[in-house]
Amino acid sequence: MGRIISFITGATVGALAALAFAPQAGEKTRALVAERANALVGEAKDFGAGMPGTAQEAFNSVRDMGAGLLKDAPGMAQDLANSATARVKGATGQAPAETNDELREKIEAARRRIAAQVMENAEQSNAVEVAAEAAEDVKEEVAEAAKEAEAEDKAE
Known about the structure:
By secondary structure, this protein is mostly helical. It has helices at residues 2-20, 26-92, 97-155. α2 (26-92) runs antiparallel to α3 (97-155). It has a single domain, classed as Helix Hairpins. The protein has three helices and no strands. It is rod-shaped.
């Protein structure tokens, strides 16, 4: 996230420096700046229009996947416990208390791992939302730069 903002800031500073040292006449430079600013505003609008849908889709996908895992986890853990208990009973004729405790610990550990994965997926969906907000900020900065260039053009 920080790299994107640094890149955009550097690009903006570089563009302003290029304008300051441009060898063309002021009128040509202003026309060129206005043309490029309009193109950037159009690109930013296109980019921004695509982001909310993409972010929402990613969030919904991660949420649904996490909900499915969370819903299936108890059943899967119970199946695992039943299978292990059946194996122990088949081998010894009874399920020792120590083995049951070990299985319970393993089931609990599996539940914790699944919960951690669901949380990680939720955090990743937040990253998509942050990127969408950054794109919106860049869009606004480009629009302001275009307005400033137009105002300077009108002033001269």
